[in-house]
Amino acid sequence: MGKKSWLVLLLIALPLLSGALVSVLAQGFFQPVPVLVFKIDVGMVAFVAGLIITLFLLSFYAGGLLIERRSQRMLERSLKEAELGRRRFLRRLDHEIKNPLTGLRAALVNVQEARGVDERQRASNNASRAVARLSRLLADLRKLSDLEERSLENLPVDVPELLQDMVDAARSIPAYGDREVNLLISRVPSPFPTVRGDRDLLGVVMYNLVENALKFTSENESVEVRALEDGRTIVVEVADSGVGIPAEDLSNIFEELYRGSNARGVDGSGLGLALVRRIVALHGGEIDVRSQQEEPRGTVFSVRLPVSKR
Amino acid sequence: MSRQRMTLLLADDDHTIVDSLAPFLERAGFKVLVVSNGAAALEKVQSHHPDLIVLDVLMPRMDGRETLRRLRHANVWTPTILLTQVGEASERALALEEGADDYLNKPFDPHELLARVRAVLRRARPGERSLSAAWLLTAEDLVLDRRARRASLKGKSLELTPKALSVLEYLMTHPDEVVSRERLLNAVWGWEYPAGTRTVDTRMAELRRALDDDPASPYYIETVSGEGYRFLPSVHGEG
What we know:
The structure holds two protein chains of two kinds.
Chain A: H1 3-26, E1 33-35, E2 38-40, H2 42-113, H3 117-149, E3 155-157, H4 159-171, E4 181-185, E5 195-197, H5 199-215, E6 223-229, E7 233-240, H6 247-250, H7 272-282, E8 286-292, E9 298-306
Parallel strand pairs in A: 4-6
Antiparallel strand pairs in A: 1-2, 3-5, 6-7, 7-9, 8-9
Helix pairs in contact in A: 1-2, 2-3, 3-7, 4-5, 5-7
Chain B: E1 7-11, H1 15-27, E2 31-35, H2 38-48, E3 52-56, H3 64-73, E4 80-84, H4 89-97, E5 102-105, H5 110-123, E6 136-139, E7 142-145, E8 150-153, E9 156-157, H6 162-173, H7 181-189, H8 196-211, E10 221-224, E11 228-231, E12 236-238
Parallel strand pairs in B: 1-2, 1-3, 3-4, 4-5
Antiparallel strand pairs in B: 6-7, 6-12, 7-8, 8-9, 10-11
């Protein structure tokens, strides 16, 4: 125990010591004072008062100590969690880089040792694909860090128009060209309210969710995007009747570079949903997911954003 | 370009990059000089007078930014492309402030660098200060004050979002040049957006509304089908 703590304890004990001193000195000086039917001894009153004040101060001090210890423990725990998170992130990053890099090295060997034009062409196509994958990872990593530093636009955003644009954009990917995406927007009785924010970033949210839904469904399954509002909140749901997400993955899918058992081997940087969550949070919104793998199977992501005040 | 080989000065401290870029640019018909830091770049500019400089930002001894500042301070207006490392908005704004003619975020496709080199050379007027280093740009009735971040048409101030203003700025500093949507995204947004081309089109629509420019018969901004956009009137730079 430090010098300071001893001093504090001495100060706490001071009322008790003074009370005791007064009770000793009061003997012989003061006669007990009659109050109603009782006779009160002044010395005893001083002693009891000192005792009560000391007990009060002591409990206050002990409570403060306890709170301090608890917050210390909480801080240590969150530091430990952050450290664990950092290590997990590095491990996943290592994994995400390792695969395309291995592919790239193999492709370069093939370029050097290719016997014909076709073989060389195939090898260089593979190298380009690996480079594209690494570039996408890097670009998404940069977006995540850029989000913390850039200033967000704060302008009214027309959600139905944005959704239409992003659905069209996702469907313009050649692989999804012939796929249907149902877009349902409530328009009665009044026009859909706007949200305030950064249209481009909100576009990333909607696009990533729609692209994900298309990625994890096949041609005969459906994807639906719906927007509702209750005057205070706008809810955008992106739903699909695809394979669904295993229950054990659901709580982790918004983590950076987390890949659920369904998503291994699927194209993507592993940062799409982490970006989505961060952008939604920056707009004061929330995102949830519900999914089931048994019939009726499918996944629904719902984004809630506050309606902009007029 | 075929009559006379133009000289490029490539300044980057990463040997793998210059070792691959230099032969690539040589194959494209340029004479390429290579240095690995800013101080050496300054010396080479004085001794060899290159037609264009490609400067990396992060270099030992003297970084690309400081090198460019010194060149411009000494009234050397050799067209320069800055290779930036970080995609932050501040970095991009700075690149313009220091009088770079164009800039490219790493990692980039070498073909993209070649396209920029050619575009900058086409635009360059030897010895003259480039539009990218001018603070006030005027094209007919349209005036863009880059320092105040304000544009006006026939003396009336235009209400533009910061993104639309930056798009206008990029187009006005690259007049009569077809600028692809991808290039605008890279330069103005710094991000590659998944639905990027639509993102650009939305801002372009805003810009055209503000300029009262009819896309069918444009006066300021022309859509070049399948390629991008072109700023039509000639631009005069001041300051």
